[in-house]
Amino acid sequence: MSEQTIRIGFIGAGGIARQRHLPNLKKIPGIELVAVANRTLASAQRVAADFGFKRATDDWHELLAMPDIDAVFITAPPYLHAPATLAALDLDKHVFCQARMAMNYEQAKAMYLASLRTDRRTMLSPPPHAMLGDYLVRKWIREGYFGSIYEIHVHSLSAPYADPDSPLHWRQDAAISGLNVLNLGMLVEVLHRWVGYFSRVSAHLRTHIPKRPMVGVGHLVPVTVPDSVAIIAEQDSEPGKGGCSQAVMHFSGVTRFGGENRIEIYGSEASMIYYVDSHRILAARKGDRELAPVEIPPDLRRQWTAEADFIRAIREGTPVEPSFWDGLKYMEFTEAVYRSAGRDGCAVFLPFEELPRPA
Predict the structure, then answer these.
(1) 1 has pLDDT over 50
(2) Taking the C-alpha atoms of 172, 23, 125 and 132 in order, what is their torsion angle to the nearest 10 degrees?
(3) HSE, side-chain direction, 13 A CA sphere, residue 241
(4) pLDDT digits (tens, 9 = 90+) for 223-249
(5) Is 70 helix (H, G, I), strand (E, B) or coil?
(6) Are the CB atoms for 319 and 121 separated by under 8 Å?
(7) Which DSSP letter does residue 195 get?
(8) Residue ranges of the chain that CATH labels 3.40.50.720
(9) Which three-class secondary structure state does DSSP give residue 193?
């Protein structure tokens, strides 16, 4: 990789920035950390001291106006993703945006269309879910390992919000997180890579604990992001083409002892269970007696390389994954879930509209 110096600013520097993005960037030669903007000047100054930024501010507009910044990492919550991305692209800066892409489909579309109008590089942060075995599963599907895929089941049953007395988390506040709910977008992004896009979505949403205490306020406030999502999604497919006929998905944040998150694929020739956190894979072909563990071959183990991929894209023009197009598609699916739930589970058809595809 060429060591052309890339001068970087950060908008938002919470846990994911400090634990993953910044340490990984510091391993890449030719990276200069110029400025960081956080909610308070004091917190920005702490991050600057810890990681060697030259400047700190509590105003992200001020950061974007700095002429000595080439690329910006937007790692604030989703409410800031679209405005900061659009402003950065207008100022001719490369953009790496934290997942989830935006508050809703319209914001994601605006970000995507803006990315088509510039030669600046844009990339989204990938989900770590099912990453280690991602290349193996894609190889299996590409080579027809499953045959025709009949069923996909997604189980994501966890309990971060099971305690009704725990305070409202920002991810439960639609004013901050938008339509993003639990890890729906992340696992749908994985499914899109593996089996392609869905054409119909039916969904129901439920908020089991409708009010929670607000930190520092002392009284209960409404929970505006559901804590349970049930989905049936379908794909248009032709016999023998390997398309998935139906996917059943259940996401919950209030299910104690729900077991490890997993994606199950059932086809005419083979079945698989992928445990998305531990990366354990069980699989069996037609004629086998039971599912058995599968080792991921060393040459197919996908590692976390997001920061290096983004810098390489700036320096060499290489493709990125996930792209803004990938984000637009999972935001479209997420919004379809909300639209269907608002119509008592009636089917919503995808895509919403025909948009230009990336070159």
Answers:
(1) no
(2) -100
(3) 10
(4) 999 999 999 999 986 544 545 689 999
(5) coil
(6) no
(7) H
(8) 6-126+304-320
(9) helix
pLDDT at 215 over 70: yes
Which residues are within 8 A (CB) of 199 and not within 5 positions of it... i.e. 6 or more apart?
A: 234, 235, 236, 349, 350
- Is-contact 30 71, C-beta < 8 A? no
DSSP track, 281-318: EEEEETT-SS-EE-PPPGGG-----HHHHHHHHHHH--
In the chain, residues under CATH classification 3.30.360.10 are: 134-300
Coil/strand/helix, residue 59: coil
CATH of domain 6-126+304-320: 3.40.50.720
Spatial contact of 196 and 235, defined as CB atoms under 8 Å apart:
yes
CB 283 within 8 A of CB 272: yes
Nearest one of 167, 95, 147 to 125, comparing CA atoms: 95
Q: What are phi and psi of 95, to 5 degrees?
A: -130, 125
Q: How far apart are CA 115 and CA 357, in angstroms?
A: 11
Q: Dump the DSSP string for 113-181.
A: HHHHT-SS-EEEPPP-TT-TTHHHHHHHHHTTTT-SEEEEEEEEE--TT--TTSPPPGGG-HHHHTT--
Please report, for the chain, how many H helices and E strands are present, in that order. 11, 17
Query: Residue 183 corresponds to which tokens in the numbers above?
Result: 């890890």
The answer to whether the beta carbons of residues 68 and 45 sit under 8 Å apart is no
Structural class in CATH, domain 134-300: alpha beta
pLDDT tens readout for residues 24-83: 999 999 999 999 999 999 999 999 999 999 999 999 999 999 999 999 999 999 999 999
- Of 153, 170, 148, which Cα lies nearest the Cα of 161? 170
Q: Is beta strand 71-74 parallel, antiparallel or unpaired with respect to 94-97?
A: parallel
